[in-house]
Amino acid sequence: MCSLSQVLLHYALWDIMCIQSIFITFLTVGESKSARCDDLESLKKRNCDVAKIENPRGSISIDENKPVTNRKKDVAEKLKPEQITQIQPQKLTLTLRSGEPQTFELKFKRAEDYPIDLYYLMDLSFSMKDDLENVKNLGTDLMREMQEITSDFQIGFGSIVEKTVMPYISTTPARFINPCTGNQNCTRPFSYKNVLKLTDKGDEFNRLVSEQQISENLDSSEGGFDAIMQVAVCEEQIGWRNVTRLLVFSTDAGFHFAGDGKLGGIVLPNDGRCHLENNTYTMSHYYDYPSIAHLVQKLSDHNIQTIFAVTEEFQPVYKELKNLIPKSAVGTLSSNSSNVIKLIIDAYNSLSSEVILENGRLPEGVSITYKSICKNGVEGTGENGRKCSNISIGDEVDVILFGAIWLCTVGKAPSALKCPSSGKAEPETIRIKPLGFTEEVEIVLNFICDCQCATEGEPDSKKCFEGNGTFECGACKCNDGRIGRLCECSIDEVRTEDLDANCRKDNGMDICSNNGDCVCGTCECKKRENPAEIYSGKYCECDNFNCDRSNNKLCGGHGRCECRKCICDANYTGSACDCSLETSTCLAKNGQICNGRGTCVCGICKCTSPKFQGPTCEICPTCPGVCAEHKDCVQCRAFEVGEKKDTCERDCSYFQLIKVKDLNQLPQPTDQSFSLAHCKERDANDCWFYYTYAIRNDTKEVYVVETLGMIGPAKC
């Protein structure tokens, strides 16, 4: 009850949560709180002492905020990679209150002349013999081309064949020494070799690659995944720096993945660790190939962007793989690798033109929403809010994070937050980074578990039944073994069935209508994931979200849902408030409701006769023409002739007659705000007469030309 002396806007994980017009109650077994308040104004109206109302708010503190680097390639002074900043800010501290979002902005800018490490991993099975010849001069050629992009470039080289067990290779002594047939001289099979650690010496790359020999395996797929895993995790042996990391994998075959090792009797899952001895992978016979998911994780953890340079035949396979590996690209390798430099440059430009943000594991109950503002003001939301495309060097990308929102799990504290009774949760740290880059933003999350009053509780308070609880923040926090609003019930002494009887509506079978828990004979309604959806009532029999809908909107968007019944706004009615009482949509051009031929129901004309149609019952496909309908009456009243000459006064006095001298004086349709019919009829003497028929302000009007027109030689 809010009349208690210390009712607070209380954000304890275990207690009352009052959030501007939404309240959420968090309960655990053995604990109950009585204060139920909607917002600050509600507390004031309930005579809560304003001086004793606490309203803790979340906050954001920027702890490290170095500006992004404006670096030019032609400047004499060169910066070390660790001196370059591409994302801002670098560290923040967020204090979160349940249900209250915190919004902050990140800025990313690609630095010009940023260093690049490129590791070339090549399949050296026999089918790649011609390709090896063209790669032997790759080091110096690629160095020259990359000078256009960066002045700080390193290149390395590794080679792969296959696991050195049957059935992937032949293990007979002769074939193991030289696996190639005929007069071909090949080197013995191996899984992966790190031939050259990353270096800025292109001629060293050429020399060592020139010394490499082709090998051979038995099956068509290769052990590329084993090698990619080692390249990713063996940072020291490969020589990776904290710069842009590119891995080019060149092959003309498919790949083995997790589970394929069983063919060779290898069942241990890949452990994702470095096993290079003398620059050779030594555990290919012991560990299975890595799974795709495992590979994705390691490539992301080590900020490696992958370029698959594969022949046309295997393009579909590697394009599917690319869709599973963020920040990867696929290029078509010519049959002899002659286009490999252009392929690498194009793939790098494609990869570097897209920025994708990812965040680490979030604590339970915390969510993040992204909104990006990209080049030319293009905005992205949802999953598209994480990324920007077509980014050039020097372009800035703004990403707005619509906070980390802490929404606690109903009935229990999120385990990751470790909210103890002291009301202080352990801080959590999450990291956000652009994929393929080593820089990241560190975000420390602090959680408001309780109000200050929780530290000033009164243990064994007389306000809690016989001192069986601590009175804090205007409510009783029961001791172990006690339950109830005032801790008046003992778990051991009360009979569950007696208490449950008070929680059944009309002696029914359902406890608290299956929408709550019976705590000490009183229903405590469950909380839903959406805090705006609320169960209520003595037996939790009511809610504000199960009313009729119209156009997929609760109460048609024109009312509020109370105890599963729509309370409609003014001018609306119906079970779903979908019936408008407004009649303006039923007005015809003549100012009449439904042309006088129907009634206006929910803003729509319901015509009294099925022969009338149209939005205002203005159409009558089966009716005789207006002109033919009124011809005889117009004829008898204007010219005193025709079939109704003798009954004219009786039958034809329903309209007002106005005579005009010629056709030009008849009312025109464009001059009127009501329906108007122009008529031209012929009498018994083959003479034409002209008139108009209209209904204006419920008055029927006929304008008629007072002289008849001739047809042929007849005199009229």
Automatic annotation (TrEMBL):
Pfam families given in the database record: EGF_2, EGF_integrin, I-EGF_1, Integrin_B_tail, Integrin_beta
Localisation: Cell membrane
Keywords: Calcium, Cell adhesion, Cell membrane, Disulfide bond, EGF-like domain, Glycoprotein, Integrin, Magnesium, Membrane, Metal-binding, Receptor, Repeat, Signal, Transmembrane, Transmembrane helix
One biological process term in Gene Ontology: cell adhesion mediated by integrin
Location of the Integrin beta subunit tail domain: 627-715
Domain of life according to the entry: Eukaryota
Membrane topology of the entry: Single-pass type I membrane protein
Disulfide bonds: 180-186, 234-274, 419-679, 449-453, 464-476, 473-512, 478-487, 489-503, 518-523, 520-555, 525-540, 542-547, 561-566, 563-594, 568-577, 579-586, 600-605, 602-648, 607-617, 620-623, 627-636, 652-687
Family, similarity comment: Belongs to the integrin beta chain family.
Protein name according to UniProt: Integrin beta
Protein's organism: Dicentrarchus labrax
